[in-house]
């Protein structure tokens, strides 16, 4: 069950409608409070809070009809948390003003002169006259008569607004709970499926091939593992020949080969074999992510890369050690080049285990993403964190059955 299924439309629709009603009630009660006394016992919180509530429930309606992804839901989550905090502010002021009906924040003269809106059409002139400065003990002042005639009519409105604000917090909390339930099933359940809106299959026909033989779900006796790259390429050509017998449309499609890491060794050999021996295939390009292609270029790129990304200090002992290893490497590579050159490989180990951000904390740099921490001894070499969930999903019996995996393994 995916995120959308765990987060049905009716939940956001109901909550949006309730929040709309509560927003209207909060703003209406604030208007009633201002009508009785525009200055005392109010900070007009219902008006400015309603702006935030309005935007929140509007976005709730939008997520109900148009944007069903987790990114949109997360954005609405933030808005609901903000709305809950604003509702808590309303509750605070409503409780405060119930006990301080004559509290006014507009200054002495305005607080004295401004009363209920109805006073503008009746006795406003008398109120202004009463607020004319008088001299008491040699000082000019005005007398705000609110304490003698407090706007007690506000009290029921303040209580009603407080109740609506509390209900708003409840609706925001319900959204948070619904979001958490939907997300927990996705984020922590290894058997859940998440729709990737940026998936490649929206733009191309994807064909995943477990090669060389013995990797993934492919299997073979251990004494038949392939050790030469040109043999890997020949096996791949044999696969393509069999594939087009069943799906001849492949000959009409543009083909791109993609792989990562050590696949940087396989892909160039396979591409060369296709170009030289299977010219009918329309090979258009290669995609190699973090590929181990050319040892000479890779070994020589480590030090400039870590300096550019501030992973090593120029005046550090680590820099000296890496520089020494880098100096030895070209001489060895000038004599013979293998896929891995043991005297050169410690360059990467020195960086991963000892970079400046992880001194004395028992961690190491993530080999796949320098922005992340990693645990020793693998230091991220096991691959991206999502790989754990992909492996769990692909090893489900129903999934293996649907892609015709018989469960055999290399022996």
TrEMBL record:
Known EC number: 3.4.16.6
Keywords from the UniProt entry: Apoptosis, Golgi apparatus, Membrane, Signal, Transmembrane, Transmembrane helix
Reaction it catalyzes: Preferential release of a C-terminal arginine or lysine residue
Listed InterPro entries: AB_hydrolase_fold, Peptidase_S10
One MF term in the entry's GO annotations: serine-type carboxypeptidase activity
Coiled-coil segments: none
Membrane topology type: Single-pass type I membrane protein
Stretches that traverse the bilayer: 43-63, 75-93, 160-188
GO cellular component terms, semicolon-separated: trans-Golgi network
Record's protein name: Pheromone-processing carboxypeptidase KEX1
Lineage: Eukaryota, Metazoa, Spiralia, Gnathifera, Rotifera
